[in-house]
Amino acid sequence: HGDQVMSSLLERIEKGKTAVPRRVLLYGTHGIGKSTFGAMAENPVFVQTEDGLGGIECERFPLAQSYADVINAFAALYGEPHEYRTIVLDSLDWLERLIWGRVCQDHGVESIEDIGYGKGYVYALTYWREVLQGLDALRNEKGISVILIAHAQIEKFANPETDTYDRYSPRLHKQASAFVQEWADECLFATYSVHTKATDEGFGRKRVQGVGTG
Asked: Which of 7, 44, 81, 83 would you call most buried, defined as having the most Cβ atoms within 10 angstroms of its Cβ?
Protein backbone atom coordinates (compact mmCIF):
# COMPACT_ATOMS: atom_id res chain seq x y z
CA HIS A 1 0.00 0.00 0.00
CA GLY A 2 2.87 2.35 0.92
CA ASP A 3 4.49 1.83 -2.50
CA GLN A 4 1.22 2.70 -4.26
CA VAL A 5 0.93 5.98 -2.31
CA MET A 6 4.54 6.88 -3.17
CA SER A 7 4.17 6.17 -6.89
CA SER A 8 0.92 8.12 -7.14
CA LEU A 9 2.61 11.07 -5.37
CA LEU A 10 5.53 10.94 -7.82
CA GLU A 11 3.09 11.02 -10.72
CA ARG A 12 1.67 14.27 -9.33
CA ILE A 13 5.00 16.16 -9.33
CA GLU A 14 4.53 19.39 -11.29
CA LYS A 15 7.14 20.76 -13.68
CA GLY A 16 7.99 24.30 -14.69
CA LYS A 17 7.31 27.64 -13.05
CA THR A 18 4.09 28.67 -11.36
CA ALA A 19 3.01 32.15 -12.45
CA VAL A 20 2.39 34.06 -9.22
CA PRO A 21 2.21 37.83 -8.69
CA ARG A 22 5.48 39.32 -7.44
CA ARG A 23 6.20 40.96 -4.10
CA VAL A 24 8.68 43.76 -4.79
CA LEU A 25 10.42 46.05 -2.32
CA LEU A 26 11.95 49.08 -4.07
CA TYR A 27 14.02 51.47 -1.98
CA GLY A 28 16.17 54.31 -3.19
CA THR A 29 17.48 57.83 -2.98
CA HIS A 30 15.16 60.85 -3.03
CA GLY A 31 13.63 61.77 -6.40
CA ILE A 32 15.04 58.79 -8.30
CA GLY A 33 11.61 57.72 -9.63
CA LYS A 34 10.36 55.08 -7.17
CA SER A 35 6.71 56.18 -7.42
CA THR A 36 7.01 56.49 -11.21
CA PHE A 37 8.21 52.86 -11.26
CA GLY A 38 5.07 51.87 -9.31
CA ALA A 39 2.84 53.82 -11.71
CA MET A 40 4.32 51.87 -14.65
CA ALA A 41 3.12 48.52 -13.25
CA GLU A 42 0.01 46.75 -14.56
CA ASN A 43 -3.26 48.54 -13.58
CA PRO A 44 -1.81 50.00 -10.37
CA VAL A 45 -3.60 51.60 -7.44
CA PHE A 46 -1.63 53.53 -4.80
CA VAL A 47 -2.17 53.29 -1.07
CA GLN A 48 -0.38 56.48 -0.07
CA THR A 49 0.95 57.21 3.40
CA GLU A 50 2.87 60.29 2.21
CA ASP A 51 1.90 63.06 -0.14
CA GLY A 52 4.56 62.44 -2.77
CA LEU A 53 2.63 61.62 -5.94
CA GLY A 54 2.59 65.25 -7.18
CA GLY A 55 2.76 65.15 -10.96
CA ILE A 56 2.30 61.40 -11.37
CA GLU A 57 -0.76 60.26 -13.32
CA CYS A 58 -2.17 57.43 -11.21
CA GLU A 59 -5.19 56.18 -9.25
CA ARG A 60 -4.89 56.42 -5.51
CA PHE A 61 -6.76 56.09 -2.24
CA PRO A 62 -7.05 59.28 -0.15
CA LEU A 63 -3.89 59.96 1.89
CA ALA A 64 -3.88 57.56 4.85
CA GLN A 65 -3.94 59.46 8.15
CA SER A 66 -3.86 56.36 10.35
CA TYR A 67 -2.90 52.71 10.35
CA ALA A 68 -6.62 51.81 10.10
CA ASP A 69 -6.89 53.77 6.81
CA VAL A 70 -4.24 51.51 5.26
CA ILE A 71 -5.95 48.30 6.43
CA ASN A 72 -9.33 49.61 5.20
CA ALA A 73 -7.83 50.20 1.73
CA PHE A 74 -6.66 46.55 1.67
CA ALA A 75 -10.13 45.41 2.76
CA ALA A 76 -11.79 47.42 -0.05
CA LEU A 77 -9.47 45.86 -2.66
CA TYR A 78 -10.13 42.42 -1.19
CA GLY A 79 -13.89 42.67 -0.84
CA GLU A 80 -15.10 44.84 -3.73
CA PRO A 81 -14.99 44.26 -7.51
CA HIS A 82 -12.29 46.22 -9.42
CA GLU A 83 -9.81 45.97 -12.29
CA TYR A 84 -6.58 46.71 -10.36
CA ARG A 85 -3.69 44.25 -10.85
CA THR A 86 -1.04 45.93 -8.67
CA ILE A 87 -1.07 47.59 -5.26
CA VAL A 88 1.65 50.17 -4.63
CA LEU A 89 2.28 51.07 -0.98
CA ASP A 90 4.00 54.46 -0.97
CA SER A 91 5.87 54.62 1.37
CA LEU A 92 6.90 52.13 4.05
CA ASP A 93 8.78 54.69 6.15
CA TRP A 94 5.62 56.79 6.52
CA LEU A 95 3.56 53.65 7.15
CA GLU A 96 6.01 52.89 9.98
CA ARG A 97 5.12 56.24 11.58
CA LEU A 98 1.42 55.31 11.43
CA ILE A 99 2.24 51.92 13.00
CA TRP A 100 4.24 53.61 15.76
CA GLY A 101 1.30 55.96 16.33
CA ARG A 102 -0.95 52.94 16.75
CA VAL A 103 1.46 51.31 19.24
CA CYS A 104 1.59 54.57 21.25
CA GLN A 105 -2.22 54.67 21.26
CA ASP A 106 -2.36 51.04 22.48
CA HIS A 107 0.00 51.77 25.36
CA GLY A 108 -1.07 55.32 26.24
CA VAL A 109 2.32 56.91 25.59
CA GLU A 110 3.52 59.95 23.61
CA SER A 111 6.47 58.33 21.84
CA ILE A 112 7.41 54.74 20.99
CA GLU A 113 10.68 55.38 22.87
CA ASP A 114 8.61 55.79 26.07
CA ILE A 115 7.99 52.02 26.05
CA GLY A 116 11.08 50.68 27.82
CA TYR A 117 13.73 48.22 26.64
CA GLY A 118 12.96 48.77 22.93
CA LYS A 119 9.73 46.79 23.35
CA GLY A 120 7.75 49.34 21.33
CA TYR A 121 9.52 48.22 18.15
CA VAL A 122 8.70 44.59 18.96
CA TYR A 123 5.02 45.52 19.45
CA ALA A 124 5.17 47.28 16.06
CA LEU A 125 6.05 43.96 14.38
CA THR A 126 2.53 42.71 15.17
CA TYR A 127 1.16 45.43 12.89
CA TRP A 128 3.81 44.84 10.23
CA ARG A 129 2.74 41.17 10.26
CA GLU A 130 -0.89 42.24 9.79
CA VAL A 131 0.09 44.47 6.81
CA LEU A 132 2.01 41.65 5.11
CA GLN A 133 -0.81 39.15 5.77
CA GLY A 134 -3.28 41.58 4.15
CA LEU A 135 -1.00 41.96 1.13
CA ASP A 136 -0.57 38.16 0.94
CA ALA A 137 -4.35 37.72 0.86
CA LEU A 138 -4.59 40.19 -2.05
CA ARG A 139 -1.75 38.43 -3.85
CA ASN A 140 -2.75 34.81 -3.24
CA GLU A 141 -6.53 35.11 -3.51
CA LYS A 142 -7.00 38.10 -5.83
CA GLY A 143 -3.90 37.74 -8.03
CA ILE A 144 -2.65 41.25 -7.22
CA SER A 145 1.07 42.10 -7.44
CA VAL A 146 2.62 44.13 -4.63
CA ILE A 147 5.15 46.98 -4.87
CA LEU A 148 6.43 48.40 -1.59
CA ILE A 149 8.30 51.70 -1.81
CA ALA A 150 10.79 52.95 0.78
CA HIS A 151 13.39 55.68 1.06
CA ALA A 152 17.03 54.78 1.61
CA GLN A 153 19.39 55.56 4.46
CA ILE A 154 23.11 54.99 4.88
CA GLU A 155 24.06 52.61 7.68
CA LYS A 156 27.32 51.18 9.00
CA PHE A 157 27.59 47.51 8.11
CA ALA A 158 29.91 45.25 10.10
CA ASN A 159 30.75 42.55 7.57
CA PRO A 160 32.58 39.59 9.20
CA GLU A 161 34.61 39.09 6.00
CA THR A 162 35.79 42.69 5.42
CA ASP A 163 36.31 45.96 7.25
CA THR A 164 33.15 47.78 8.37
CA TYR A 165 31.70 49.89 5.56
CA ASP A 166 28.72 52.14 4.77
CA ARG A 167 25.84 50.74 2.76
CA TYR A 168 22.32 51.77 1.77
CA SER A 169 19.35 50.16 3.50
CA PRO A 170 15.57 50.86 3.64
CA ARG A 171 14.81 53.73 6.05
CA LEU A 172 13.02 51.54 8.58
CA HIS A 173 13.72 50.23 12.07
CA LYS A 174 16.11 47.31 11.62
CA GLN A 175 13.68 44.62 12.84
CA ALA A 176 10.88 45.83 10.54
CA SER A 177 13.35 46.19 7.66
CA ALA A 178 14.59 42.60 8.02
CA PHE A 179 11.00 41.34 8.30
CA VAL A 180 9.85 43.09 5.10
CA GLN A 181 12.98 42.16 3.13
CA GLU A 182 12.55 38.49 4.03
CA TRP A 183 8.91 38.62 2.84
CA ALA A 184 9.64 40.23 -0.53
CA ASP A 185 10.55 38.19 -3.63
CA GLU A 186 12.77 41.02 -4.91
CA CYS A 187 14.55 43.74 -2.95
CA LEU A 188 15.51 46.40 -5.50
CA PHE A 189 17.66 49.47 -4.88
CA ALA A 190 17.65 52.58 -7.09
CA THR A 191 20.25 55.33 -7.12
CA TYR A 192 22.04 57.65 -9.54
CA SER A 193 25.25 56.36 -11.08
CA VAL A 194 28.08 58.49 -9.65
CA HIS A 195 31.81 58.17 -10.30
CA THR A 196 34.55 60.04 -8.45
CA LYS A 197 37.29 62.01 -10.14
CA ALA A 198 40.40 63.14 -8.27
CA THR A 199 42.23 66.27 -9.41
CA ASP A 200 45.69 67.28 -8.18
CA GLU A 201 45.64 70.85 -6.84
CA GLY A 202 49.38 70.95 -6.17
CA PHE A 203 51.16 71.22 -2.81
CA GLY A 204 50.18 67.59 -2.10
CA ARG A 205 46.47 68.46 -2.09
CA LYS A 206 43.94 66.37 -3.92
CA ARG A 207 40.32 67.32 -4.65
CA VAL A 208 37.72 64.56 -5.17
CA GLN A 209 34.60 65.41 -7.19
CA GLY A 210 31.47 63.32 -7.69
CA VAL A 211 30.50 63.07 -11.37
CA GLY A 212 26.90 61.99 -12.04
CA THR A 213 25.62 60.29 -15.19
CA GLY A 214 21.95 61.04 -14.52
From this structure: 44
